[in-house]
Fold this protein.
Amino acid sequence: MEKNIYQKLQECRVELQEMSIKKSGKNSFAGYSYFELHDILPVVNKMFLDRQMTSIISFDNELATLRIINTEKPEDEIVFTSPMRELQLKGTNAIQNLGGVETYQRRYLYLV
């Protein structure tokens, strides 16, 4: 029996939580570690490939959107959204701030 997108995503979530992925990001000011995209994306991409899923992230002025699609049945998808916010990183220009926002959003959407 073919698995639906919810079953496939749940399998990925369980597999991911059973792994010992190291958090490479460090916030020395607040004293905590966090996942960087390069910590989780290779693992997630492999799990999605193995389960015939793909993900697409998009941004507009209001929302960051993550679509997870069952490639065996493309109309079968899950959509996660997060409201967009501005970010003011010290010593950066507008494009770098936008890149920072998009990087944060990507990481947050995958960790939902």
Observations:
- The two ends are 27 Å apart (CA to CA).
- The mean pLDDT is 94.
- The beta strands are 25-27, 32-34, 53-59, 63-70, 77-83.
- The chain is about 40% helix and 25% strand.
